[in-house]
Amino acid sequence: MKLLALFTLLITSAYAEGSEADYVSTYCKGVIEYRLPDRTRVDCLMPDHAIEYDYGKKWAEAIGQSLHYAMHTGRRAGIVFINLDNSDMYGVERARKLIGHYNLPIDILATIGTIPE
Hints:
By secondary structure, the chain is α/β, with parallel strands linked by helices. The chain contains 4 helices and 5 strands, in the order H-H-E-E-E-H-E-H-E. It is globular and about 35 Å long.
């Protein structure tokens, strides 16, 4: 019984925060999961940006993926950070500093919290 209660709690918590795909489907106003020739997928392809949605704690991965998507699409790299706690915000600040220091062609387009109900 305890195992079932724990499983239910984990599922409920994950659902309340939402997955990355939930954020993309809620906020992307372009093409979702645009497939590139190398079989990777842009989370959200807009007329001017190839956008990676990711959690702030995965800031380094978001930088690399957004640059990869921009290279393949000829669009500017964009990141939308999903922020649910302080560690996510710490990652966003690290990304801002790195992008600024090296003058990387990446726009941080938004930071979003939980999905509105």
